[in-house]
Amino acid sequence: MARRAGPAGGRHPHRRPNGEGARIPDLTLWSKPQPRSVWLALTDLLLVIEIVSPGFEAIDEMVKRHEYAAAGIPRYWLVDQDAALTVTLHHLGRSGEYEVATKMPLAWLLNTAPADHLG
Known about the structure:
The protein has helices spanning about 55-70, 105-110, 115-119, and strands at about 5, 25-30, 45-50, 75-80, 85-90, 100-105. It has a six-stranded mixed β-sheet. It is α+β, with helices and mostly antiparallel strands. The chain is globular and about 35 Å long. It starts with a strand and ends with a helix. It has three helices and six strands. Helices cover about 20% and strands about 30% of the residues.
């Protein structure tokens, strides 16, 4: 299965329940190449990655997590801007909410293959 990372701010698929606005994640991973467009269907979206923005922690940690889970996105990774750049890997549980799979420093995560965490 071909995988491609989307550019920061270059992809997002999720419309809010009221049909207005949308989210543009910091990074996305798709199961196959997508057309050159900002607004895309969720069908092939495997992973959304957000980097916690200072002053917007609650939005990144709670609001976006809930919205992405409601959209059915299988995986959500959150990168904290602490000393270790801790990454929290969430996966969509049977309840339709994200569950924490693990937490690890970004340096360790970068030494693994994405497939190790997408199974």
